[in-house]
Amino acid sequence: MNPLYSVAEIRAIEQRAAEALPAGTLMQRAGQATANAALDMLPFSTNGARVLVLAGPGNNGGDALEAAAHLTYSGAQVDVLHFPPAGEQSAERAAAQRRAESSDAIFNDIGGSALAGTEWNLIIDGLFGIGLARPVSGALRTLVDTVNTLGCPVLALDVPSGLDADTGAVVGPDGVAIRATHTITFIGDKPGLHTCDGRDHAGQVTVAALDLEPRQFPSVRLHLNEARFFARKLKTRRQNSHKGSYGNVAVVGGARGMAGAPILAARSALHAGAGRVFAVFADDAPSYDSGQPELMCRAAAGFDLDSSVLVLGPGLGTAPQSVELLKRAVASASALVADADALNLLAADAALQAAVAQRGAGCIITPHPLEAARLLGCAITAVQADRVAAARTLAARLRATVVLKGSGTVIAAPDGDAVINTTGNPALATAGTGDVLAGLCGSLLAQGWPQWEAALAAVWLHGMAADVLVTDGVGPIGLTAGELVPAIRAAINRLVQQHGR
Ligand SMILES: NC(=O)C1=CN([C@@H]2O[C@H](COP(=O)(O)OP(=O)(O)OC[C@H]3O[C@@H](n4cnc5c(N)ncnc54)[C@H](O)[C@@H]3O)[C@@H](O)[C@H]2O)[C@@H](O)CC1
Ligand SMILES: [K+]
């Protein structure tokens, strides 16, 4: 189920496991697992392959030293850039150091020019793991900067050095972290590898459980998203069904000059399978959408907000009539997705926030980090400094399902369950993709999905559609939000073929 463990949880698991094992066992297993992963990344003939091992002062460095010794046995030429601890070191690290020193590894104080002038087949980053306590600075900062310019494969041990394993933020301010192509993470997977700066620094992540048994792992409330979490809600369509079987969605927004946003959201809702979709405009409604005449365009005045699942916010604006619409929507009995300006209006109105928290019909909110910061009354940097915590706090406060967008979108429930999404790419960093996501959430709700599974599936499908388009060369540069819509339709139909019942 792809659980994600905090540093505190990993430390507790590690401590209990270490007590039951001969001293040094876990570090030896970590070193062996690292060597195996490194061999997978080296040329088939490892003879003479150039490997640089960066070994820091703590046990992360110990793992690296273990790996260095193993790799020499395979014939690789291993240079070790060693940063011994200023004070005492753990017994297992000392043993690892002795093993590396008595192997063919070359302990070398490689200067910047030799480092940059060598064609490394692989660099192993064992500078800092979960014990990173402050920003990487001084000579080590220069080293990290140099490694990041080299363009060779980089295998980070446990976590790329400089990255916070809990949050995925580069430890700063103005910090640096290794940009690895691969990360082998020990004992259990960590949230920081998958959100915020994590995806840019960790590369491809594999987990080495170090032969610990499943019973040694506590159950946790944070996971990576996967289709298994929502697959049971994917339904094969019955022959004897009609448009009324698949629900109504009303996208409410579209103040003057912003009519495109609700149209995009409404097209998304339609292509994701809703039976009937309304585009509802705060100001004058166009008579119809010539690009998608299946949509029904309406003015908000007089529109029955109890008749459809509501997607409120795309292009809504912040004029007084938009506030009134938000109040009507929150007071309605309909399931609600709140996005964009609906969230900005909500942030400015404590009474409305209380009303959202008391809604019987629930609510999904889909803030980007700035909207989340406004809702939380904090700076955007505070949200990004711990995205999972920010999403959980908002979910608890508003009693809503929160979709905190960004690299490694976080979905959080009021009860504390949280999931980090794995699909998606920078192609989504363009106007309108949020409208498409909100429409998709609304569409799944209209088709009878529970809020939690709808949010998980919508985020996963939205990202998967972008991933498929990028594989086909449509992006990441220049992908448009509208192009996502048919790709989402393809992705959802594929999932239903695989899992539908
Ligand atoms: N103890 C064990 O049995 C195991 C340890 N493991 C490894 O051990 C790591 C954790 O080891 P540690 O707790 O020793 O922590 P680290 O090795 O991550 O780093 C701690 C050391 O770095 C120093 N330090 C922290 N931030 C610094 C900075 N910015 N600049 C300079 N020095 C800094 C600390 O003073 C300390 O000496 C894990 O990430 C993992 O790689 C795993 O192999 C699992 C088994
Ligand atoms: K590391």
From TrEMBL:
The keyword ATP-binding applies. Residues 226-495 form the YjeF C-terminal domain. Residues 10-218 form the YjeF N-terminal domain. It holds the Pfam family Carb_kinase. Keywords: ATP-binding, Isomerase, Lyase, Metal-binding, Multifunctional enzyme, NAD, NADP, Nucleotide-binding, Potassium. The keyword Metal-binding applies. Binds 1 potassium ion per subunit. Its EC number is 4.2.1.136, 5.1.99.6. Gene3D superfamilies: 3.40.1190.20, YjeF N-terminal domain. It catalyses: (6S)-NADHX + ADP = AMP + phosphate + NADH + H(+); (6R)-NADHX = (6S)-NADHX; (6S)-NADPHX + ADP = AMP + phosphate + NADPH + H(+); (6R)-NADPHX = (6S)-NADPHX. AMP binds at residues 405-409, 434. K(+) binds at residues 60, 125, 161. Its cofactor is Mg(2+); K(+). GO terms for molecular function: ADP-dependent NAD(P)H-hydrate dehydratase activity; ATP binding; metal ion binding; NAD(P)HX epimerase activity. Homotetramer. HAMAP family: NADHX_dehydratase, NADHX_epimerase. This is Bifunctional NAD(P)H-hydrate repair enzyme. The gene is nnrE.
